[in-house]
Design goal:
Layout (H helix, E strand, L loop, with lengths): L1 H23 L21 H5 L3 H18 L5 E6 L9 E5 L4 E6 L26 E11 L2 E8 L13 E4 L21 E2 L1 H13 L5 E5 L1
Parallel strand pairs: 1-8, 6-7
Antiparallel strand pairs: 1-2, 2-3, 4-5, 4-8, 5-6
Length: about 220
């Protein structure tokens, strides 16, 4: 009887763990329409390393440089996120706008308000979706997940970011390395990175004399 009770407890615990995994992590096993298929490039090249055409980042950077110069933001560095890349691959880039080069890259979540068919974007409170556009990376604070940075939406597509409590923070569910073709966990709309990667971002943020721009595109 005791052995049977113990077995029931073990089975119940295992079931709860599995349910918790799928409720929180929500891994995506199906590749969606926006999945990026890397082209063949020379070994060791920047394109191969980050699986993203540098030309695309350079185009975003050109727009940000002009905005940064006019509005008093950091004109050398920006954080560029491309949601057109699957979540299991690096899609958060620390980008040098003067050299048009990627300095570091890491994984980042999108909001779980998206449909099964692909990522949906919204600025509506309660949508739990990622919002596209430019953000000002604001002051650091200690929040629910530890170190976090306030984000201020600078476009009509994300101007409710502060109201929605969309911030830059880390979570243990985000891996340090790529896991594609699997996806990673999802957030309530916050760009959430791995703890070690947030510490790297912290170095750049603290060393910057001017606010840094974060841009989310697709």
């Amino acid at each position: 009887m005791l052995l049977k009770t113990f077995a029931v407890i073990l089975l119940t615990g295992a079931t709860a763990t599995m349910l918790g995994y799928f409720a929180w992590y929500k891994p995506k096993f199906k590749t969606n329409k926006n999945s990026f298929a890397p082209k063949h490039t020379p070994a060791g090249s920047e394109k191969e390393k980050y699986r993203l055409p540098v030309e695309k980042l350079a185009a975003v950077s050109a727009q940000l440089k002009s905005f940064a110069a006019k509005k008093g933001y950091n004109e050398e560095l920006a954080f560029l996120v491309d949601m057109g890349i699957p979540s299991g691959r690096q899609r958060f880039f620390i980008y040098n706008m003067q050299k048009d080069s990627i300095e570091l890259a890491g994984l980042v979540t999108h909001g779980y308000g998206s449909s099964k068919e692909g990522i949906e974007f919204s600025n509506v409170p309660g949508s739990y979706c990622t919002s596209l556009g430019k953000y000002k990376v604001g002051a650091a604070y200690n929040g629910r997940f530890g170190l976090a940075y306030k984000l201020y939406g600078l476009d009509k597509t994300n101007d409710k970011a502060f109201e929605r409590f969309v911030v830059l923070h880390s979570h243990d569910c985000v891996p340090a390395e790529e896991v594609a073709p699997l996806g990673i966990c999802e957030s309530q709309g916050c760009p959430t990175v791995a703890p070690a990667f947030l510490q790297k971002l912290k170095v750049y943020i603290e060393a910057s004399g001017k606010p840094i721009l974060l841009n989310i595109s697709q």
